[in-house]
């Protein structure tokens, strides 16, 4: 189980710092730090650092094997995130869908794509025991 005194850290590439900062702040992430070569965010309680790497952008992103995101434990929070993404016209990579329908691991999910083609997944499992 996660301890509240630990923060997960993820570093990803970005092609433009201003565009990246605007996207993640619009998503609701707090800008923590900004330097000439990176921006750091509070990404739903964890740390995401976007390093300026315009030559390392995935031009044709695919959901698998590389993406990151949030798994909500509360359905209402998932629904709010989806409504917010729609309202703010955030760019969807995959519209909302149900995965593994009818199985114990069934979950709701949608994917957003950031300005550097990093894919972000937001999901909610009907059975909380399937989160891990």
Automatic annotation (TrEMBL):
InterPro entries: Glyas_Bleomycin-R_OHBP_Dase, Glyas_Fos-R_dOase_dom, VOC_core. The lineage of its organism: Bacteria, Bacillati, Bacillota, Bacilli, Bacillales. PANTHER family: PTHR39434, VOC DOMAIN-CONTAINING PROTEIN. Residues 6-125 form the VOC domain. This is VOC family protein. Gene3D superfamilies: 2,3-Dihydroxybiphenyl 1,2-Dioxygenase, domain 1 (3.10.180.10).
